[in-house]
Design goal:
The protein has a single domain, classed as Nucleotidyltransferase, domain 5 (2-Layer Sandwich), CATH 3.30.420.180. About 35% of the residues lie in helices and about 20% in strands. With about 130 residues, it is α/β, with parallel strands linked by helices.
């Protein structure tokens, strides 16, 4: 499966009250780190506790994408595949990286991270795909 055919998902963690501009800036930084653009995204993902966070929901609307809420069981399964371990994230969510786990959980069992999350202005963003490395 070529990366062009793969699902690409951006996972997010965020402090309460982040703006949609901060979310989009973190997204753009994460995409740029992997030489991707917004139009390649198929989904945005976050944790159930962040489903009503205005910065995330507004960013999803601005991008014309649905904000997928990762399932708790899928998050726990994805946790072992996270590349980043944040004590703050562990304390707050029980996950080593909220953004990485969310992206992986929404991609499903075939998902893999393109790299570690980025952190910018109270937002973490990680990019996962269902594609294989070439």
């Amino acid at each position: 499966m070529a990366l062009e055919e793969a699902m690409i998902c951006a996972g997010f963690g965020a402090r309460k009250g982040v703006t949609h501009d901060a979310v989009l800036a973190a997204l753009d930084a994460a995409l740029a780190a992997h030489s991707l653009t917004r139009d390649r995204l198929d989904a945005l993902a976050t944790l159930p506790r962040k489903r009503d966070e205005p910065g995330l929901t507004d960013a999803a609307k601005a991008l014309g994408l649905q904000l997928s809420i990762a399932d708790e069981n899928a998050l726990q399964a994805a946790a072992t595949h996270c590349l980043t371990r944040s004590e703050q994230a562990l304390s707050a969510t029980g996950l080593p990286s909220a953004s990485e786990a969310a992206a992986l959980a929404v991609c499903g069992p075939a998902g893999r991270l393109l790299g570690p999350r980025i952190t910018l202005d109270g937002v973490t963003c990680a990019i996962a795909t269902t594609g294989r490395q070439s």
